[in-house]
Amino acid sequence: MATLEKIRNRAVLLIVVIGVAMAAFILGDLFKSRSTFFGQSQREVADINGHTVMIDELQHKIQELTEIYKQSQQTQSLDEQTTDMIHDQVWNNIQREYIMGDEYDELGLAVSEDELFDLVQGDHLSPIVRQLFGNRQTGQVNKSAVLNFLKQKENDPAAKAYWLYWENEIVNQRLFEKYNTLISKGLYANSKEAELVIDNSRKAKNIEFFSKPFSSVKDSTLKVSDSEIETYYSAHKEEYKQDASRKIEYVQFNINASEQDDADVKEWAEKAASEVKSINDKEEIARYVNLNSDSRFVDRYQDKDQVDARLKDFVDESKVGAVYGPYKDNTADAWVVVKLVNEEMRPDSMQASHILIREATAERTQELADSLYNVLKNNKSKFAELAEQFSQDPGSAKKGGELGWFQDGMMVPEFNEACVNAKVGSIVEATSTYGTHIILVEDKSRNVDKVLLAKLQRNVEPSTETYRNVYSEASKFLGENNTYEKFEKAIKDDPAIAKLHRTANAVKSSDKQVNNMDNSRELVRWAFNDAELGKLSDVQELGDRFVIAVVTEIRDKGIQPVEEVKGPIRAKLLKDKQADYLIKEINAAKAESQTLSSLAQKEGVEIKAASNITFGSYYIQGASGYVPALIGAVVAAPVDEISEPVKGENAVYVFRVVSEEENESVPTLDQEKQQLAQGYSYRANYQTFNALKDKADIEDSRVKFY
Prior knowledge:
Layout: H1 2-25, E1 44-48, E2 51-54, H2 55-73, H3 80-107, H4 113-121, H5 127-133, H6 143-152, H7 157-185, H8 191-201, E3 203-213, H9 226-235, E4 241-242, E5 245-254, H10 259-277, H11 282-292, E6 302-303, H12 312-317, E7 323-329, E8 334-347, E9 349-357, H13 362-378, H14 383-390, H15 394-397, E10 402-407, H16 413-421, E11 427-432, E12 435-444, E13 447-459, H17 464-480, H18 484-493, H19 495-498, E14 501-508, H20 521-529, E15 540-542, E16 545-555, E17 558-559, H21 562-590, H22 596-603, E18 608-613, H23 628-636, E19 646-647, E20 651-662, H24 669-695, E21 698-700
Antiparallel strand pairs: 1-2, 1-21, 3-18, 3-20, 4-17, 5-14, 5-16, 6-13, 7-8, 8-13, 9-10, 9-12, 11-12, 15-16, 19-20
């Protein structure tokens, strides 16, 4: 069981690493869906290249990974963000399993029992095994610990299920490595290719150049016709693929606290101020705060000079027991009452070492602590030795128990107060939730005037009455505007309603939220499962608002209609025409210019300079953005000739190579071949799955269930 606990502690990190690695292969849109689920089984959640995925399979895998996370984090519940991450990771794994599984079967790839043994216990351990069982400092794996765990798991169902998950991941990882190795071995960097790169890198060019931005040509000068757009669209339809999506319009009624809610909280704060005045025992004040306040009691002294500016005069002029407030904290939107619980001279910081004792029972803990305490009272020189031997705080134990300097209030209260009240050089005991501490107080800073404050805070939040009123307002709106025509008219005619109107243009079935609204996944599910075009929804509660929505457009999976992409195409063709216009204009001026300076003067632009340009350059100083066409032209150009106009992404460039120099950092042939091969291998590793996934036929119907 001890071994299981150790590897559980590492499992979340490992899951995240694997999740990130898999995500790297799934670039682009992860979740493809279709607009209708006609003909599918009620229990079918997806179809991946003809492999049917049923909801039971998905739920089982989600539950399996959820239990892994719970065991690893030693918790009974997970937050919403972690749950969403688990759902996404399971879906990614299922896609990988079926898409890659077909490839493995076709190629005959497999992991044998002997190979699996070698990955788990042999000489070629899987990275997963190294992560679970490896020493974090040395990286070495204790194979005996692996073997003991594998034996013990047979008597522990939880451990067995835990291991089966990781064993499956080990196999999948190994299969993927084999597949990528086959791809990588098919990519070869030959000598001619490397020589070309080297030859183009031998000279570093220094240039002078000018640019004319496309924007210098007025849009009104050039026209893009509908027929040109249609021609371009027909030739480039594959560039305009789309997933199924919905356009949603909605009106939101925010559930905000009312003036009456604020007044009610203020009244509570006034009553609390009166009650807390009569409480002077610190423990009673702490209980009162923890029972009644929206913030917990903080048992930590503050330097009087460092308290909140609002409370400065209060702590300077008041005696212990005084109460300040209530006052409104607008930042937190809360009413606050502060009581001065105590004031005393205390060290600002302390230096100490400790031995943390935590045995199986409280009796054994106290027995060992008392024994060590008695030894150390008579011989403090043994402190470091005993800390290394007995302390259950691994961080300080290896340093002889040293904690170094820490500020007053930084440690748990029992430990902190023991250090404050002890003399420098003394040995004291303190018991906290962590166990029993034997403390050597080594030094303290000078004492400063400090105060202990109790803060009662009640946040101003919508009451039940406010909640009902906002719901009634939303219901009234829906009752009066129960058709899309009335909905539109209300938005157009009523400025107050217009301010509540929102649009979500391309909501996909995989989206967790709509316009970053909390708890809006249900709105996505409604839009894909239950909504009819132009029919208003019921009043939906989404986080801190009520929403009335309508689907105004349904976009099916496939190619976007030309009408939807006219804008981007028009902009693209307009840039091409602007570039052609500028190239023609520059060429005309070039025929009458002897130098680059005279040409630039005719064009009304300034000349810039750039240096050390090689085939491996990624940018040119002074040019706009990434300009590979310009870099290629510069590398190929002779010295002291005015170039032809070069079309970039946002401008047209003309340059002259002023000089060229020998590039001192040219690689050898072997170095360049190795670098090219590494680049091919990298592309194989991180593009293979993406390419297969783009080719795959995936029907994602998860929105029916989640």
